[in-house]
Prior knowledge:
The complex is a heterotrimer of chains A (699), B (163) and C (190).
Chain A: H1 2-29, H2 33-62, H3 69-74, H4 81-86, H5 92-112, H6 122-143, E1 149-152, E2 168-169, E3 178-179, H7 195-210, H8 212-224, H9 230-261, H10 271-296, H11 300-323, H12 338-359, H13 375-407, H14 415-435, H15 446-470, H16 475-506, H17 510-520, H18 522-547, E4 549-555, E5 560-563, E6 566-577, E7 582-593, E8 596-601, E9 604-608, E10 613-617, E11 619-622, E12 626-635, E13 643-651, H19 654-671, H20 682-691
Antiparallel strand pairs in A: 1-2, 1-3, 4-13, 5-6, 6-7, 7-8, 7-9, 9-10, 11-12, 12-13
Chain B: H1 2-24, H2 35-42, H3 61-75, H4 80-91, H5 106-136, H6 140-162
Chain C: H1 15-40, E1 54-56, E2 68-70, E3 78-84, H2 89-106, E4 111-117, H3 122-131, E5 137-140, H4 145-150, E6 157-161, E7 167-172, H5 178-189
Parallel strand pairs in C: 3-4, 4-5
Antiparallel strand pairs in C: 1-2, 3-6, 6-7
Helix pairs in contact in C: 2-5
Amino acid sequence: MIAEFGYGVITVAFLVALYSVGAAIYGEQTKSAGWVESARRAMLLLWPLISLSAASLIYLLVTNHFEVSFVYEVTSREMPTYLKITAWWGGQSGSLVFWSWLMAAFASLVTLRKWDRDREFLPWVIVVTSITTAFFLGLVVFYQNPFAFFWQGPDGKLITDAAGNAIKGMLAPVAGASLAIPADGNGLNPLLRHPGMIIHPPMLYLGFVSFVIPYAFAIAALITGRTDDRWIRITRRWTLWAWLFLSCGLVLGSRWAYDVLGWGGFWGWDPVEIAALMPWLTGTAFLHSVMIQEKRGLLKQWNMLLIILTYSLVIFGTFLTRSGVLSSVHAFAQSAIGPVFFAFIGITLVGSVALLIYRWPELRGETEMKSMLSREALFLLNNLLFMSVLVVCFWGVVFPIISQLFTGQTVTVGPPFYQTAVAPLFAALMLLMGVAPLSAWGHSSLKTLGRAIWKSAAAALLLTVLLFFTYTANAIALAGFFLVALVLFVTVQEFWRATFARMRAQAENFFTAFWRLVGRDRRRYGGYIIHISMMLMAIGILGINVFQVQTQGTVPINSSLSLSGYTVKYDSIAQFPGPDGRQVTRAVVSVYQGNAYLGDLYPRIDYYSDQQQSMTIPGQRSTLKDDLYIILVDWQPTSANGATFKIFVNPLVNWLWIGAILFLFGIIIAAWPERDAERVPARTRRLQQTDGKQTSAAD
Amino acid sequence: MTMKRLFGTSILALLAAAFFTGLVLAQQPVPTPSDDQVNHIAHQLYCPVCENTPLDVCPTEACRQWRDLIRQQLAQGWTEDQIKQYFVQQYGVRVLAEPPQSGLNWLIYILPPLIILAGAFILFRALRTWTRPASASAAVGANESAAQDEYVARLEEELKKRK
Amino acid sequence: MTGTTPNTARRAVPLWAQIIIWVSLLGLLVMVAIELNHSQQGQVARGDRIGNFTMPLFSGFELNGQGQFNLADYHGKVVMVNFWASWCKPCEQEAPDLEQAWQFYQGDGRVVFVGADYVDTEPEARAYLAKFGITFANGPDLGTRVSQLFRIKGVPETYFIDRQGILQYAQIGPFESVDEIKSIIDPLLK
């Protein structure tokens, strides 16, 4: 009954979403505020409806209703309840419900805002968000129904199709069929049972979903022809939050890979990882270039392009993981939704690009660039670099498809390709990060820039020389460290200068001055904090890429392996059943540095007998200097050889996680809602003067 | 970066190899290649059956067999390139971490730089167009290009008249 | 300088740029569509004509003394192609049945069995063949060319090609018994 209810409600939600699209378009065409309002209310209804459906799904998951196919696929009796709940997004069909649910939540939030002066955007924002929601709901209703049942014939045999797959459906496929109730479910993929993996997909989905909102406004602006920067102003904070979620998702994913996959690394340049990185790249470029539009009225076309690109990449990324076109550790099993998804992408892309080309002439910039070294010029360079990274990533992901098509050969595009291509681009981005904050809007010259930067550059150089003598002679690492130091010094100096200016001018103490400084221009100083955090992350990335060392060996008990100063002694091994049906094989090793005992580590292998899948959980010892990362590779109970361990020393990698935390902190500062009325930005002020438009200061 | 790392690991592998050969020499007459030597090559190959998993970290039984195969080949004195070649021949090009630089695969190495250069060129030109009004008053060079533009405009106008 | 700078002019996207944009966009979409279609395709279906292929055979597992299997040579016979691997557990389940079936048909002369060893290592493959006493022709599927031809999704999978070279039956997953194999081959011999 519950399953039928859930399916019924989600079908109604789908119809309501379609209605809101229709009503919004009709209301817009007939200039009828009533119809638009009706569309708006329909959209508000979506979230409660999907919530009801989701609640029924969760109920089914938690209460072991294995006759429901999705419940069977992702849960089993022995799974703890919290895992049964999070199994909601552990499989294709459930995660589509989850996607729609988040999408509807954001759509509701956006419809609840005050629309007074942006009425003309409203119908089109409703149309775009509702179409997207309806699309995902449609996938659930027609193609990937999590509520579908298994059926058995009167003979008690599961009803299957010709290929032997169980036929799933809400209604009996043949007369006289009854529900088939398996005794136990398949259980969730063990890889997805890690806490990081439980939060990682929702964060990514949140990021994906919240990028739909700025896109919807951009399209509304294109359709209505109100192409000034109003849409950007409205969606600025949405974009920042979207960026926050997406970044969070990426960081959590990396941490999960580091903790669970046992590669000794956190980023494998897997196509699906890249698919999640790509919208982040365009999103980051967008965050920078909108500032130019706000400050200087330039780049309207470019910003439109970027947000369309971001949205397309979000959908494209989701498509890649779900259609079976790309296969990877992250991919959902191949399914029937591929073609439908493809059609949706095609229509979205073609529609958006056509609109953009149609409005192109009206999106011209209004002022000129004054200097090649002005901040806006440097921001453009930043955009160019982000786009270059995107090109590399996109091409790397798409190339195997092209190769398959033209030569019939499957090729792998792996880390070496990306690392070589991307490293210089990121180095250039770092250099820009050092220079751009010092340049002025409108006009800068080599001389002014040089005067501002020389102290930091000299200090960075000094530090690099110091590192050369004390730490490393590796040229790449030194170049990297120089750039990191440069950006850090420049950014800290910016904080320092402004704080001191404030201390003197307002007679405040250091902390008050600092606090108020950041509070006054959250976006700028939040951005600087993000820059600093990026540099900390760069230290970690440099560390693992340049200095990582590893060794592997098979040792008997009480013997040891050594690697870069560490000695790892194999003490004992034990096998015991763990929670939720896994067999744990856990080794105890003691770690020494020189002769000093540092502690024990417990690398282990968890074997999930139900899924016949094992997971290698490393033993880790993290310090700011390096991580000791030990993997239990193999263990033969009968052989006298003992166990095989693989040991990594990952220098500096901890800085990546420290940086990541600071990074999130920085975004939150930048995205935090401002309490006081927004100041009228320069653009609007000029607009007031030129077209005499009535724009009030309060927003 | 990768070169450096390869270099580092290979040195390490050699050291470890020396260490282990010393260790096992007493029992075995033929030195068995160490895990590090095997992993060094396995790292550059992808598991032919799993998706996007380098051979050195892949935990499946099949991958263990492939690593053993590499070990045997090393013991027989095969070079790194020979082993890679063998894997390509047996399991297809997809086992390589990077597409080989031949045929259509050149596209993957050439296209991104070309697009990036094109992007840089477009950006540079756009910047020039934007900065021209400001610099025209100051710089002579910019004046010249502006004058040229006026010349082009006049030319086009005359062309139109002749139609 | 006059007040009208070029960038304030309302210019549309030039035609050549539009053409480039649309061509590359549609090109991308078409390519993804083809690839999607490819990945949506299941294994070769019943009634499909199987294109010719050749496959080297392990020494000791030749067919009629030839070290290479060429499908075209066996036109007019029923050909069974079995995909397996030494690391594949379900394959072990059906291996004795396959060998028993081969013993049954070997004398007949109208049936050919050939095993394609999917991404495997030769020593392990040989150990596997020895363990189950396999005697029918077997060889490595070099570069996964044969498995790509059949678009297999995993191992074991077994394909039965009739005397006209048309695929008549595809078995996904292991066989349960010798009789099951026989029940597929016998109708093809009539």
